[in-house]
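Data deposition worksheet. Section B asks for the primary sequence of the deposited chain exactly as it was used as input, without tags or linkers unless they were present during the calculation. Section C holds the resulting structure in token form. Section D is free text for depositor observations; keep each observation to a single sentence. Incomplete worksheets are returned to the depositor.
Section A, Depositor: J.P.
Section B:
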Amino acid sequence: MEKRTEHQAGVLYAAFSYILWGFLPVYWKLLDHVNADEILANRVFWSFFFIAVILILNRKWGLFTGTLRGLAQNKKQLAALAIASLLISINWFMYIWAVNTDQMIEASLGYYINPLVSVLLGMIFLKERLSLLQYISFLLAAIGVLIMTISYGQFPWIALSLAISFGLYGLAKKLIKVDSAVGLALETLVVMPLAAIYIGYLLNQETNSLFAGSLSTTLLLVGAGAATAVPLLFFAKGAQRIPLATLGILQYIAPTLTLILGVFVYHETFSTIHLLAFTFIWSALILYSLSKTKLAAALTVKWKKEKGLPM
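Section C:
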């Protein structure tokens, strides 16, 4: 009974984190009068201090400093941390810019594609093997992206930039196994000095929005730290309590909410071509989710035996 309650709590925590991520574009829309680069600098800067306070309150500051010392002596992990910090900064910038230039639909596409990109990266860099259903899901996703490319007359680079940067970020994170809150503090610490220098530069040039515009703008820029950290903390609580397969299914809540916001709240164009492309992507995700079930695993083993393929 206790295990069931723990699982239910995990589902609620994880689902809530994805709901927060799904509605995060509303927050960035409130700052659409501020340049994406300034929003990013403030997001990085204030995220570090917000998460530092959380670490102190949760008595994890010692864990943070100990992890930092350990990383300083491990060049491989230190390089992975620097790469992860750069990739997540690129991802954040692209997402903020996409939302504030009315391209939320393509941004949501990026996060639908992301799980498939992560599996592909695992196959390339970690030599992970794919099942037949997973290969088919890649084919369907590729068709969806091709349809978008042809209909746009250009490559859907925003979607793929978001998916690839976050996929590579996840790959880099595999080399740094630390507490999620500590990990976010470390990642923001790496780029925080650059963010601080950029904010200082804007202040010196008097082109800043922080402390210069309305009080609401300043509070929103400072609050970007909390808006970044809070969903991650709920996600960490959920991830500790539920299987990865459940977590994988719940992750589609965020791009679905973003898509709904883009179409019905911010009135971005969602044409028949979009629907066709997304249908292929959604079909790919359904197949991918099915491929993680025990039944699919058993069928894959049977298929490989019949074909005489290595297990």
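Section D:
Residues 2-29 form the longest helix (28 residues).
The two ends are 37 Å apart (CA to CA).
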